[in-house]
Amino acid sequence: MQISSRFTIAIHIFSCMETFGKEYKITSDFLASSINVNPVIIRKILSQLKNAGLIEVARGTGGTTAARPIDQITFYDVYLAVDLLEEGELFHFHDNPNPNCPVGRNIHAVLDDKLEHIQEAMENEMKRYTIADVAKDIQRCLKAPE
Amino acid sequence: MQISSRFTIAIHIFSCMETFGKEYKITSDFLASSINVNPVIIRKILSQLKNAGLIEVARGTGGTTAARPIDQITFYDVYLAVDLLEEGELFHFHDNPNPNCPVGRNIHAVLDDKLEHIQEAMENEMKRYTIADVAKDIQRCLKAPE
DNA sequence: TTTAATGTAATGTCAACTATTACATTAAAA
DNA sequence: TTTTAATGTAATAGTTGACATTACATTAAA
Asked: Would you say the pTM of this structure is higher than 0.70?
């Protein structure tokens, strides 16, 4: 199972906002064209980012801006916002191990902390990257000779 | 999107092999009863573990054993074996960013190494745990007073 | 030859992802 | 005030993967 493309799309959205925000109004159609997915998908993700307090979206007139400085928006913030986990658990544990079996009775207690450590390792690495890092690298690409 | 329960089931399987292997023959029915899923699901996972060279399965007579010392079988080995990733990629990147857009043209190049680092952080943590760690903790639970 | 396994094909249900159409709502601008 | 160009969201659909289940051919030991 892969992590949904909503995550990379969300990063792409922020990158467009940063790169084009001064020149263009950032609408769902504009974004859909750069990202190449349906505008309704974009609006859904924008809605999630808004609910997470990461962006502001103007109704009626349209347009989107970051709700705080982009060097304070980490990959982890975005990851949480687009709602990729059920109950915050990266691993889907099989639901009903047999309580009458010594292993079935204890497997959860024994595994849980290890799985948490793994999830944390991933989340901590996600916290190390910000939208600003991406925007900066995009700028560098644009300035570099083809 | 969560990581499939095939992973925790596989760990459970190894735990049963280690805990009960000397006393019982470890069949798919035996495992299915401890794990509480259909025996065919177990056989599918056993087949994946076998293909990855982690276990040996006896046809006809039945029974399963680890193919090498369990302190040399890491969570990462199991994770790879149960085939959770497409092309080894944890993140599903949106497929067709617009090549005519400066951001769309560069987003992949800019993001890929960051996503790899995140994936690696998770995988490295997975390599730190072995089946032996789990088996040992199960033993401790069994000895402890209720 | 019997028996108790594994291996696997076929089928089904369900949930999530992504796409798409349609339209009510909004707020600025004309 | 009307027009216009957005957003918000419901409804529907196709596709895929997870997991469940039945059925049965194959295997190898007893």
From this structure: yes
